[in-house]
Amino acid sequence: MTVRAGLLQLSHDLPGEDPVESHKSAAIAKHLEWIAQASTQGVQILCLQELFFGPYFAAEQNRRWYAAAEEVPDGATVRLVRDVAKQYGMVLIVPIYEREMDGVYYNTAAVIDSDGSFLGKARKMHIPQVHGYPADGPYGFWEKFYFRPGNLGYPVFNTAVGKVGVYIGYDRHFSEGARILGVHGAEIVFKPSATTAGHSDNLWFIEQPAMAVANGYFVGALNRVGIEHPWNIGEFYGQSYFCDPEGNILSAGPRNQDALVVADLNLDRIREVREHWQFYRDRRVDSYQDILRDIP
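Now predict its structure.
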């Protein structure tokens, strides 16, 4: 079975001082245009970027961004994309800012099937608190100010085009959850991110292919694009890509340019690769107990 999959790497050009709702409406309108374009290219499953409906606001610590959060699945954005998914017959991975209740917020991805049904959500499990560049500046990746760590584990969703996992942003640095997604049966793992040059670009083409190889599944690694003002924490450099279970790059987007990245994923390759590299057979789970031990 071959699945045509897509990633949307897009810039967000409004200045940060603009009203929160202006950011959301502009980003949603832009993404709707690109989703329509993906449909014309036969994309069957499409992932949007981390916190797609605005800037990467976690570059600062400001309570006004709490107003961007919505309920999942009952908020306006998820209701909208459910209609869009049904219109195009396309599975959509939609990362947004989720409000569970007042004061409790998550970095979440809603998974919508091709008939518009809500399949569930994945919540970012590992929450960073990291200085940007320069390291002594006021801006950075201040996600602990905005997000509670995810509490839904590592779900895999049975979509119309295969079994899909989502591993958001900073999660990609943690191999444990990536393995669990494979154990849960994931065939494609999407990794929507917001990451900047000088901060992670030496890791970008190492970590995801390594995870694809270690776990025997396809990976779609997605990064947003551009320099967002006034924060200027660095260039979100794009270069989104798909890699196969042997770590081969199948297609990649340009650096710092809006783009739809498309790849045809032959899911039959998963069985072929796993029958050669028998990592799941040869695991020694009886010897891994120390991985549960915290650092003293």
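The chain has one domain: 2-279.
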